[in-house]
Structures are given as structure tokens and as C-alpha cells.
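Data availability (excerpt). The following record was deposited with the supplementary files.
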Amino acid sequence: MKWKITPSRLTGDIAVPPSKSHTIRALLIASLAEGTSCIRNPLLAGDGASALSAAQSLGAKVRTEGDALIVEGIGTRYEGGDDLFDMGNSGTGTNLFMAAAALGTRQRRFDGDGSLRSRPFRPLLNALKQLGAKVSIDNAASRDLPFTICGPLRAGKTTVNGVSSQFVSSLLFVTPLLAGNSEIVVENLHEKPYVELTLWWLQAQGIRIGHSGDLTRFTVPGGQAYHGFDREIPADFSGAAFAACAGALDPAGLRLTGLDFSDPQGDKGIFEALGRMGAAVTHGTGSVTVSGPGPLTGITIDLNAMPDALPALSVVACSAEGETRIVNVAQARIKETDRIAVMREELTKMGAAIAELPDGLVIRKRPLHGAHVNGHDDHRVVMALAIAALTADGDTVIDGAEAAAVTYPTFVDDFRAAGAKIEVSA
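Predicted structure:
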């Protein structure tokens, strides 16, 4: 799919879609719970659909009622479901569900699309092996997926590389279910707010976990259990980044609705970053308005806690006076694609003055022009390039635009309603 985007002025409201991170965590807990759960307003496309499929492969029974999912959990019945977990493009779903798949003795095979096959899973697989998992990787010399995993997991001590917070979260979700007490030691922790999001879900379930203040050591009492729940999925601060950045580039700005700033999602920090750059950020009840009433200024932004914001913020930086440095976010290189290299490559096609750092980007102000660019099968890259195209001089064509549906299936409709000129073609 291609998007052809003509420079456009935006105005009005955009309702932020439901959170991928919350949806996948809710589906995992509901799948492992004893009893029935109701998940309201989940993300049912892209990564959400992959997580729903994984829940069914685990053995959970799932049905739809209106805008809600009703999930009958498996409790301690770990041997049901299917042998194959087809995770599509979902790295989060793969990481969070692989540990759950190793609770029983049944061999489970995980696979996905070409992009997912290029991503690293071995740090988590190695940590699970320390807890008794048996793992076989098809092409271990060149990649980590497809792999087969089985248990049963046993309580104990494990050490995990925290380059992805998902590796840590996966262990936190399963170790309370084991028969004995466990200890998790985290090295090289990144994306701390996502671990805090996992702890928020665990606390809501009454799960007891002790941890150090820096979240690098956890003590987990065993013999605990999940129970059915009824909860609405909050709006997605990661998805809100694109409307927020588009608003910051427009004097009229945009109002984003449905956001709850008491939510633990770390990506709400993007609003603080845009404010530091000179955007006007005005909070309302359940909404926030972002506009660019005056010149933006380049700053240094540490994105370790919210790496998903890198693509969108790199676009804003192209319009900021002076130099913007996006730093301490080397893990952005192991997302759906190497987002540091890809954003440098694609924005350069549009005329940007942008250079790579090992852990980020350096960007100086320069007007963008329309170009033919590629989304690299990465939803956040596609949407960031769309924001760049709205302010560029001339039309821009984005190849592979269908990837946006992974987390934001209504992107085109929402932005068209706000004034964006987007043509969609096969």
C-alpha cells in the first residue's frame, strides 16, 4: 500500500486509539487467570490481533461482545491450546507470551513475519533456560526466530539483559505462578516505565513482588494466581505521539482526546519534550491540545524511557532552530527495524540535515521537501514520515504504509478528518 500525502494544515480533534501495551498485558493476564475477564475497548488490529491469537494458542477461550473481549482463562491448565504461536509482526506479544508458553511441558513453536524474524529474542530465551525451559532455535547462527520452547518452568534465580523491557516484563508475569520463590536480576535496564507498567498490572491483580528502587532486582513469591477482571484499555500515549508532533508543527494545533495522564504509560513524556522545544501544551479534562504558536528550539532529549517516540520527534527536530540531539536510545535499533538508521535514511531523502549517533540522532533545522520514501514495514516509521510529509514542500509517497495498522488502524481516517490530504493506493 502507498500513501500520497500533500502538504496540509491540520485542525480539530483526534481521538487517540487504545494502547497496544495495555491490550497485550490484559490479554496475557486474562489468558492465565482462573475465571472470566472482560477487556473493554482493546486494540484488535495488528499487534492486538497477534496477542489475541496467542491467547487462543495458549488455550484461552475468547469471544467478542460489542467493543469488548470476553476471555475464559486457563488457570493452571498449561497443556491445552495449539502447538504454533503465529505472532505476525508483534515483538511485544512474542516476548510476553513465550514465557507463559513454557509453563507447561507441551512444545510450542513461535514464528512471525520477515520483520519479526530479524528481531532479538535470545536474551529472554537464555533467562528462561535458567528457569528450566528447553529451547530450540531453527537458525541459531543467523537469527532467533522461529524457535520452539517448552517447560515446565521452575522457580529459582535468573539473570536477564534488560536492553528490552519486554524481557523483564515477561519474567515478571510468569514467576509469581511458579511453585517456589524466584529472583530476577536485570542487567543493562532500558525502558524503565514499561517495567513499571507491568508492575501496575500485577499490583491490580494483587500479585506480591519485591524490588529494588532501580528495578534491577526482583524477589517474587511463588504460588500466586491471576483472577478474572473487568477493565477498559486506556488510550495509547505511544500512538498519541504522532498527533502531538503534528500539532506542534502547526500554529492552529490539534486537540487529542481520550488521554488519562494518571496512566503509567511512560510515553506521556513526549508532551514534556514538546513543551521544552517551545510547543504550547494545554491540558483539559481527558484531553490535551498541542500547537506551535512560535519557533521551536532544538534541545537534547534522552529517550531511554520512551524509545518509540524517536521517529516522531526526529521529524519535529527538522523544524527546530539550532541542533536537536536525541540520545541514550540505542535500543531503538532493535525494534521493528533499526529506527535510528531508517529515520536518518528516509528523512535525508526529504532534505533533512540529520546524522546518526551510536545511540541516537543529531538533527539541524532544514526545510523538508516531498520525496518517495519507504516505511520499512515499521508502523512508527510510516506514521512519522506521514507527519513529515504534511509540512514538506511538495508531495510525498510512502511505500509500505499498511504497516501503520499494527497500532493505529484508523490513522488515515483520523488525520483526514483533521484536514490531512492523504491518498491511498495499492
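Summary of structural features: The mean pLDDT is 97.
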